[in-house]
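Dear U.,

For the methods section draft, I wanted the exact inputs and outputs in one place so we can describe them consistently. I've listed the two proteins in the order they'll appear in the manuscript figures. Please don't edit the token lines directly; just add comments below if something needs changing.

First protein:
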Amino acid sequence: MSKVAILTYTSTHHGQNHDRQAVELASYAADKGYQVIEVIERTLSGLRDNTFKAGTQRLLELAATNRVNKILLKRNIALLGNNAAQALSVLNELHRLGVSVVLTDFDSEESLTLDRKLSTIGQTIITALSTTIAWKAEHKQFIKAGLAEAKLRGKQVGRPAGTTKDATEILKKYPKVLKRLKKGVSVRHTARICGVSVSTVQKVKKLLEAD
């Protein structure tokens, strides 16, 4: 019997539901005769201190101790990391440990074959992640070159003078908002709890993400 870990994902921006995904994936596992060892929830809040790192560590721990041989997720392979580079690294490590990733929304395609070799979909995923990494690196270099050229022409680059101080003052003014955003609470819920406007919470959130 295959032993699996279920990986679910939600975003505070889009209001997805962990429970619904977990139920659907558990139903899929039952139909296949898989034993569900653990359900790992990952929430993207738009801030740096989210559950992604812990989720990745737990996945690798389950794989390294031979507690699971498959990871079930619906469609987004990027759930394996905080970015494409980390997702690719985690995927390669899972494959090294003989653990396959199953995408249930894509005809239940697995990243490894029965004899633990890279499957067609597995190679496609790796190629897609590698392409994304290369594109982001090229885009970053393009931006750096543009900023360097702007500086040579004497143009203002970065934040206008005085904005850093203003940002610091705003963050200090709303400590309760700051605390809840760091915990991954949604913008609307934070506004309701703290008794401030949604636009105020959005302003604080934008400053956090830009910091």
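Second protein (the one for the lower panel):
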Amino acid sequence: MQGESPHVIRLIILAVLLLNTLLLINDLDSFGIWADEGYQIVTSGYTLPEITREAAGDVHPPLSYYVLHVWRQLTGDSFFAMRYLSVLFILLATATVYRIGQDLFNTTTGLLAELFFTTHDLVLVRGREIRLYPQAIFLVALVIWCYWQFYQHPSRGRGIAFVLSSATLIYTHYWLLGWFSADWSGIACTLDVLPALATSEIVWLCIHRNHCTLCPVAAGIIRPRLLNRTGLGIA
């Protein structure tokens, strides 16, 4: 794969993104709204000041409500339109996962990471719901990529990008503040030595914690390395 032309690689990336889109938009508006989606719809229908007051007593921060509020002003209130915002966040996450795999390892790993992420069960479920999780999944991938860029080539611009993406993530899901405070040193070390780690232990950690925003990103990046450790030599 490393010897393939950039045009072939771009075609493969686009093919996986197309597959992701087809899997997510198939019958996107054919199933009913459930309680959490309903709350997201109702809250995002308020004015921005009302959303801020409502979120002050909620377990989730207001950013995802703000984003959906603006999206609805542009696209309308159909179930398909509102769920398509989640699809777009997952597509952005898919492209970011490819870049993480490519930058940490190689192009083959990036392509396989993109494919594994696309077919992850949590991506296929959460990516079709009107909830904050698709946005959070994208931002988890973005924070990891921004951190790696800053770590490899420190600069003011990369540092600002890392801080802004991290703040955006926290204002999307409060629980991910614990990820930063408790696990950030571990994540930094993991990214530093990931090619040499026993990656099955990392996968076990993500699955054990069962976090619906971390698991798809971690699984997409790490699964190609697990396949390589079996001796198949494809990553």
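Candidate sentences for the figure legend, describing the second protein: The chain has twelve helices and no strands. The radius of gyration is 18 Å.

Thanks,
Y.
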